[in-house]
Amino acid sequence: MQLTLVRHGEAAPPVNGVDSKRPLTQCGHLQAQQAANFLKEIVQPDVFVVSTLLRAQETLAHIQTYFPNISVLVCDKIKPDDDAKLAIEWLSQLPFERIVVVCHMNVVAHIAEQLTHEHFNPFALAEARIYEQTVIANGLSTQDKAFIPTV
Questions:
Q1: For residues 90 and 88, what is the distance between their CA atoms, to the nearest angstrom?
Q2: pTM of the predicted model, to two decimals?
Q3: What confidence tier does 15 reach under pLDDT thresholds 50, 70, 90?
Q4: Pairing of strands 128-132, 142-147
Q5: How far apart are the C-alpha atoms of 11 and 47, rounded to whole Å?
């Protein structure tokens, strides 16, 4: 089973304190495109899982250009301050072998930390990490590949 975790690209600051509608900046779009270019050669997703927040959805849109027929599940358990344990429980119930998740710091790094039992390691903007495991559960994942955009 393959689980790919992707953090969104650089986003604009909140407008009037509204975090959920922050779009990607021009740099964020370039970062997301670089991540998509990396992933197109490495993954063959069965499903995409994306946060409800705009910046994650815009990042996923770049990846989707290479996988136009793959279904998308919108998940409200992978926002910045969400509980990684609940996110892992939700992901573990999905009936797919190859899942690509696009979400946010801090939850994405906490998910990775729990899955691998390695120390907390923050994700760079639009960073993608690919994990292998038999099932999605604490301590059972091994990081296989990673990519950090250069812009």
A1: 5
A2: 0.97
A3: confident
A4: antiparallel
A5: 24
Tell me the percentage of the chain whose pLDDT exceeds 90: 97
Task: List the one residue out of 64, 15, 12 whose CA is nearest residue 36.
Answer: 64
Phi, psi angle pair for 38, to nearest 5°: -65, -50
Task: Output the CA torsion 3→121→145→118 (10° steps).
Answer: -70
> What HEC string does 32-76 produce?
HHHHHHHHHHHCCCCEEEEECCHHHHHHHHHHHCCCCCCEEEEEC
Amino acid letter for position 45: P
Tokens of 104: 């946010």
- Between CA 128 and CA 147 the distance in angstroms is 5
